Amino acid sequence: MCLNVKSCFLFANIVFFLVFVVSASARFSTEVTKSEINSICTHTDVDASLCFEFLNSSPQIAALDFYGLTKYLITYESRKFSDMLKQFQSLVNSTTDPSAKGSYHVCVGTFDKGTGCFDDAFRHLASKDYITLEWSVECTFDMAAGCEDELSTFKPNPQLFKDISIVKNLSIMGLVIVKLFLKKG
C-alpha cells in the first residue's frame, strides 16, 4: 500500500485529516438553519408570527443547534410559567369575586404542577431521552390549556389569555423540534 516512508506518512496525515478534522467540523456545524426554522414556524398548530418573532429575537439563537435551541426554549418558557404562577397567586390574594378567585386558584394549581413538568423536561433533555421529553413538554401545554379552560368561565383580563397563548405556543414549538429534529437525530 505504501511504497516508501514518505508516502506512508502522507497517507497517515490524509487519513487523520479526514477522520478527525472533517468529522469534527461536521459535528460542530449543526446550527439550526433558516430552512429548519421555517419548518418549525410553519408547522401545523404553530403560531407562525410568534414563532418567527421568538426565533429571530436574539443573535444567540442563531448559533444554537437543536439541543441548545430546545434548552433555550424550555428555559424561556419555564421563566414565563413561573412569572404567570406568581401573577395568579397575586390575583388569588387580591380578587374579591369568589368565582374569579376559584378560577385563579385552579390556575395556581395547574401552573404549580407545570413547573414540575419543566424540571422533568430539563432532566430528559440532558439525558437525551426525547420520548419522555416530549411527554414533559406536552405536560406544560396541558397545564396551560387547563388554566385557559378555567378562565373561560368568566371574563378575566384579556392579557391573561394572551400570556397563556404564548406559553402554549412555546410548548408547541418545543414539541415540533422534538418530533421533527431531536428524535430523528
UniProtKB/TrEMBL annotation:
InterPro entries named among the record's database cross-references: Invertase/methylesterase_inhib, PCW_Enzyme_Inhibitor, Pectinesterase_inhib_dom, PMEI_plant
Organism domain of life: Eukaryota
Residue stretches making up the Pectinesterase inhibitor domain: 32-177
Family annotation (SMART domains): PMEI
A single GO molecular function term of this UniProt record: pectinesterase inhibitor activity
UniProt KW Signal keyword: yes
Signal peptide range: 1-26
Keywords for the protein's UniProt record, in alphabetical order: Disulfide bond, Signal
PANTHER family per UniProt: PECTINESTERASE INHIBITOR-LIKE, PLANT INVERTASE_PECTIN METHYLESTERASE INHIBITOR SUPERFAMILY PROTEIN
Family: Belongs to the PMEI family.
This protein's name: Pectinesterase inhibitor domain-containing protein
Species of origin: Arabidopsis thaliana (Mouse-ear cress)
